[in-house]
Amino acid sequence: MGDGIMFYFSDNYEYFDCLDAPESTRFQLLLEPLLGRLKDVQRPLAYQVVRQFCPEGAKVLEIGAGVPLVMEALRVSHGCQCTVADKYLGKGRGPVDAAKINQSFPDIEFIDTYVGEFDPRLREDSFDAVISVSVVEHMAHSELAAFHEDCVRVVKPGGIIFHAVDVSIDGPADQDELIALLRNFIEHPRLTALAPDRMQTLEQARMDPAVFTLSPTMWRRWRQLAPPEFDFSVYRRIASLNIGMRKMQVP
Ligand SMILES: C[S@@+](CC[C@H](N)C(=O)[O-])C[C@H]1O[C@@H](n2cnc3c(N)ncnc32)[C@H](O)[C@@H]1O
Fold this sequence. Notes:
Layout: E1 6-9, H1 12-20, H2 26-30, H3 39-53, E2 59-63, H4 69-78, E3 81-85, H5 98-104, E4 109-111, E5 127-133, H6 144-154, E6 155-168, H7 173-185, E7 191-192, E8 198-199, H8 202-207, H9 216-222, E9 238-247
Parallel strand pairs: 1-8, 2-3, 2-5, 3-4, 5-6
Antiparallel strand pairs: 1-9, 6-9, 7-9
Helix pairs in contact: 3-4
Bound molecules: S-adenosylmethionine.
S-adenosylmethionine binds next to loops.
Organism: Megalodesulfovibrio gigas (strain ATCC 19364 / DSM 1382 / NCIMB 9332 / VKM B-1759)
Protein name: Methyltransferase type 11 domain-containing protein
GO molecular function, one term: S-adenosylmethionine-dependent methyltransferase activity
């Protein structure tokens, strides 16, 4: 793949930028208070990636949006046409009140599906951007290949895919395996690089003191949100792995 890979772990400087963002920005208004959670960098990052790589009015799909704050911000500030794919069945301890969320965001289209099921309502080559925040870590490793293939299917040629994934950078083995599987995402034959200078290996992240990780306080709170099989008997640093890709114009 060469230069231009986007596969890196958010750092503290990204978090500081979020803290320093002016109160008046649309994002700040839509975000809950910044509490040093991974979402506090992941949501602004997903928003910025779409704004940076997609034109105004872009068609954007957010997978597993929960309460679709990023979508709403993109709709208002960048004129995006926004679709959410989520069944709202509480997977990953996400919300279940689909009707209330649908009513609260009347300008967003909601499709009750899981990406990875190749639902024909999500049409092939139809989105300028496909994004997710804190979704991929809730999927079984065996589901990831179909999930990724479905993302590639629905994004337009020239469009982008972006995922922010909660991972432990200190193992155990299933976390190392998840990161390795996600590294394979960017090797897909229909995908190419998105951004320059954003490649980091897991080994580099482990040694990097600036990697943004959950504080011990937020780590304890994350217990309620983490995948149930996650091992909390040992403290591990939880970081946001950010992966960006572009679909090639020609296969
Ligand atoms: C932890 S919540 C994250 C919600 C939101 N993205 C956020 O950051 O606040 C995970 C969400 O992903 C959804 N989800 C999990 N797998 C999915 C899939 N394959 N396709 C669509 N949604 C999925 C769940 O239903 C849940 O609402």
